[in-house]
Write a structure and sequence with these properties.
With about 400 residues, this protein is of the alpha/beta class. Helix content is about 45%, strand content about 25%.
């Protein structure tokens, strides 16, 4: 019998025992004794289970200390060899292996939980090896900040930057070890400033983060009192239909970030904001309506940028940037090898080169690692048709949320 049913049964026993006639005291005593026995036995069972949990926790702490000692030894070897501390391909291999083992063990914990637990364990390990600093497109409590935390955990240092170009600059100058920037949203498309900065940067993509974006209506007043809504333009775009249905007459005020929107809603009367959970909690705003984005599968892709490219994992993606020669059929000839070699191209975007009028750079994502076949051969053939080609990075393929 479920515990809650036992609880209500006990309540009925107590009622019957207290309502029993004085002529039948043995019934009242019997019922009361049954209730007392059940509660006593339950307390004993809980105490026993909690003692077992405490013993398991002691074992976990002991094993975590053993793991930390091994991580320290790895860090000493890496520093002596001049190797990077953060190795995204190794991290992804570990996480995939743990997820597989969890399935084999028939674990109660889903892959999402396994990854979240080990994300913090790995974050603590990174902090033991080196004082890691992550630059991200800020300010504090943006979706990019949340994405960075989901990748690097709570044990490293974070610095917000006011522009995407400044994230690149912080990493290039050595003020940060890695940077996190948005690259595209499944609803609103590419983040063009990120594409533009890659044109003049020598940094590499070493990992990516796929994060489900959930937008919420928050305010200090009730829904009926909201006359103005603050948010980032992209968030308004992700919630167009919902806004037309629920706030067709509200003033939509665009601001530079969702934390700024939350701040305004916390200070201005008759105001609400469309923001993520982290921004809402930062300014103590109550949730009036959750997950209001039009597309329930609204996902933003973020890139981790650094000075080194990840090594192959067997399940990788490569990002390229190229400019084709100005001749008939040039683009078809350039990408034809990918079709012939059966290499999937998951994305192709174009941006003005800004070097001369009507010249464009193409950005492509393709399956595989740039140092492995068949992608290596396809890139070599692509280069024959290009006036410019840059490998932006190869990195572990995404774990879709």
């Amino acid at each position: 019998m479920p515990t809650i049913w036992k609880f209500w049964e006990c309540m009925r026993l107590i009622e019957r025992s207290t309502a029993t006639s004085p002529k039948e005291p043995h019934l009242a005593l019997g019922s009361g004794s049954s209730v007392l026995h059940w509660f006593t036995q339950t307390a004993v069972d809980l105490s026993d289970l909690r003692n077992k949990i405490d013993k398991v926790d002691e074992q976990i702490i002991r094993l975590l200390n053993d793991r930390a000692d091994l991580v320290h030894e790895v860090g000493v070897i890496k520093k002596a060899a001049g190797q990077p501390i953060y190795v995204p391909e190794r991290e992804e291999q570990v996480l995939r292996g743990l997820a597989t083992k969890a399935v084999e063990m028939k674990s109660r914990l889903p892959e999402k939980s396994i990854r979240a637990i080990y994300r913090e364990i790995m974050s603590a390990a990174l902090a033991l090896e080196k004082d890691i600093t992550i630059a991200y497109f800020g300010p504090h409590a943006t979706n990019t900040h949340q994405a960075a935390r989901s990748r690097f955990g709570a044990s490293v240092n974070y610095i917000p930057e006011v522009a995407i170009a400044e994230v690149f600059d912080a990493v290039a100058r050595g003020n940060a070890d890695y940077g996190v920037v948005p690259i595209e949203n499944s609803t609103e498309g590419p983040v063009n400033p990120t594409l533009d900065v890659f044109m003049g940067s020598d940094l590499r993509i070493c990992a990516q983060i796929m994060m489900k974006i959930e937008n919420h209506l928050v305010a200090k007043c009730d829904r009926a009192g909201i006359h103005k809504l603050y948010s980032h333009p992209q968030v308004f775009g992700q919630c167009r239909t919902w806004l037309k249905q629920h706030f067709p007459n509200a003033d939509l005020i665009e601001v530079a970030s969702t934390p700024r929107a939350a701040e305004q809603a916390s200070q201005q009367p008759y105001s609400g904001a469309l923001v993520g959970r982290m921004a809402a909690e930062e300014f103590g705003l109550p949730f009036l309506d959750e997950n209001i984005q039009d597309n329930p599968n609204n996902v933003t892709r973020f890139l981790v940028i650094g000075k080194n490219m990840a090594q192959p994992t067997g399940a990788d993606r490569t990002s390229l940037m190229f400019c084709i020669r100005d001749e008939p059929g040039a683009l078809f000839k350039a990408i034809e090898p990918f079709n012939r070699m059966k290499i999937s191209m998951s994305k192709i975007e174009s941006r003005p080169s800004k070097r001369k009028a009507w010249e464009y750079f193409f950005f492509v994502d393709a399956d595989g690692h740039a140092d492995e076949q068949p992608l290596k051969d396809a890139i070599n053939e692509l280069e024959k048709h290009c006036s410019f080609l840059k490998i932006l990075g190869s990195y572990p393929a995404p774990c879709v949320p």
